[in-house]
Amino acid sequence: MNELFFMAALFFSIAAAFFIFNRNDRKTAITCAVLAVKVLVIWAVAGTGGIALSEFIPIAGVIVALILAAAFFLPIKAAANPDFRFLMMITAIVLLAVLSSGCKSAAAQLPQVTGELKLGFVPSKIMSPVKDELYIASERGKFISVYFMNLNTKKTTISTGYMPVDMLINNNTLYTANKSSNTVTIHNLETGKGVNIDSGGAYPCSLAVNLQKNRLYAANLGSNNVSVIDLGAPTINVVKTIPVGKWPSDLYLSPDNRYLYVCCKYTNTIQVIDAEKEQPIFTKVDTGISPSKMVPLNSHDIAIINEWEYAFNHQSTIIVFDRINYSLEYDIMVEGGIFDAALSRSKRFMYITVPLKDKVVFVDLKKRRTVYELEFRDDTPRWLALSPDKKTLYVACQHTQKIFTVSLNGML
After folding, report:
1. Cβ(375)–Cβ(354) under 8 Å?
2. Considering only 22-26, 287-291, 335-339, which range has the smallest mean pLDDT?
3. What is the pTM of this model?
4. Angle between helices 2-21 and 26-42 (to 10 degrees)
């Protein structure tokens, strides 16, 4: 498909050069130039397999500028000198071919591993809030290690409860859900001081912060509830627990802070909580088998990751849910069981880990299918994190206790 777009753009570009240099026909030359640019735009939008439109604008702009300049300034000289006219046409063909083949080579850029970091402990959740820094939680310990990824050196270690499996940073405060100690750690990154509080249930595994109400929510997988923690109280503690479906595994707070969505793995549903009233709404969304994670795609769509459909048909699903209209829009089947997911900068691609296949899979949300895979043989890739500029993907591997750095190239 890429070759067809390349040939079409090249054809119209050469035709434009021919009409301007050999026929002195400005009108036809400009028409051909416009067609060449249209082909490039269609290529960028529909057929590149990951090249952003912004990468085509400079190339298309150069083509248009050259042909328009030739249309208005060169025909006078060209008409008077046939040899000059022939030379200009050959030069234009070579130049346009080089520019167009530049588009073609850009389309071939694919993600690739560019580095690795050996940890010495089993990584859990990872996060990159600052350029070149990566927060790495210990799956079997009581700490988070912060690394300078460009130097492969450790910056600091932050104490937590046992088995931190989720973390987030807000207002220079680090929050972690510590699954095996049934606690939540609240750590001030400026002062370096932290406190562990009871999570209000068993096996806390996901967190969300409501800045409007100064609340922290914790999903407790083992006790089927969501805890409400008052961050503004003199003594930070749980002020309420909200019962939900079995095995709540992930939380998502809507941008307007009105609704809290809860993945309930055992009941195969997404439950909705009214964040203002702090009570569940009776509406539930039936998903696939074992919804484990939610990835917001935009202001109204959420991608729901169903991990354990793999146990039934060796595939898992990504279901796109329209939370405004409460409708399931479409689903994408992925071979193997999905563990973690992240959304690309363009919001066109989703990066997912499939530990049982030792792969990181790239899904094109527009084409609704898998378009690329990176294999991590015997590494067991599980957790993902994007750099702040979303040009680099970090992959935490359980078996080999490594962090791999992946340059996303054409799949941003």
Report:
1. no
2. 22-26
3. 0.74
4. 170
